[in-house]
Design goal:
Layout (H helix, E strand, L loop, with lengths): L11 H13 L7 H17 L3 H4 L4 H4 E2 L2 E2 L2 E4 L10 E4 L2 H15 L22 H16 L5 H13 L4 H8 L4 H4 L7 H39 L1
Keywords: DNA recombination, DNA-binding
Protein name: Tyr recombinase domain-containing protein
InterPro entries: DNA_brk_join_enz (IPR011010), Integrase-like_cat_sf (IPR013762), Integrase_catalytic (IPR002104), Tyrosine_recombinase_XerCD (IPR050090)
């Protein structure tokens, strides 16, 4: 297992604060569309674990089918870092962001299936990774007073998954070639260790109670047999 330090993440409340800052965009109403775009980009990194390099390559056909948001995001080999296709189920929060983005951007701009989803001036020219990094950094400075980078949102996605599923599933969702790349997220924090002991204690108590119940029933059965004799 890797001895590297676990990646930095943000908690659920911070996720909500960051997404709200991205949505508001800190700009006048006339640029509210940018906030909706930025909010969707944040959701794709937090809820689907996209790398920023994958995000900027997304085409209309990756996110929508017949003008309806997809239920499962298929990241084709042409946009993934390791050129391996992977799929990620679309969360409820992400589905809502996709619908909002379609109604405010893609209905008002001339786009086709091969158009880039995220752009600044024209769908033939995608937003750049540097621009996405600056958008996330600016929003984080406003709500946290510190900078964060887009990859921290992917780290947050991965760490959250490991709390509810196995490492092999997380590896597939992240698109890691080797499971050792996924193991960096397995470093437990103090809350994880405390919960592990509490869960073990609960399990032991259940086993003890089951044993007592079994012993009592066995004793009652033995007494009944003796009485019958």
């Amino acid at each position: 297992m890797s001895n590297a330090k676990p990646p930095k993440t943000i908690d659920f409340e911070q996720q909500l604060q960051l997404l709200e800052a991205l949505l508001r965009n800190g700009s006048p109403p006339k640029t509210a569309r940018k906030g909706i775009r930025n909010h969707l980009m944040g959701c794709l990194m937090l809820d689907a674990g996209l790398r920023v390099g994958e995000l900027v390559k997304l085409k209309h056909s990756h996110l929508y089918f017949n003008s309806v948001p997809v239920k499962s995001l298929i990241l084709t080999s042409s946009i993934t870092k390791n050129h391996r296709e992977r799929s990620v189920h679309v969360s409820t929060r992400l589905a809502g962001a996709l619908r909002q983005y379609f109604s405010t951007w893609l209905l008002t701009d001339v786009v086709d299936d091969d158009s880039y989803c995220f752009f600044v001036t024209h769908p033939d020219r995608p937003i750049t990774t540097r621009q996405v990094e600056n958008i996330i950094k600016t929003a984080a400075l406003k709500v946290f007073g510190r900078r964060i980078n887009p990859h921290m949102l992917r780290h947050t996605f991965a760490s959250g998954l490991l709390r509810v599923t196995n490492m092999r599933t997380v590896q597939e969702l992240l698109g890691h070639n080797c499971i050792t790349s996924t193991q960096i997220y397995t470093h437990p924090n103090e809350d994880d260790k405390k919960k592990a002991i509490e869960d073990l204690e609960t399990e032991v108590n259940h086993d003890v109670q089951d044993f007592k119940n079994l012993s009592r029933h066995a004793g009652e059965g033995l007494s009944s047999n003796e009485t019958g004799n």
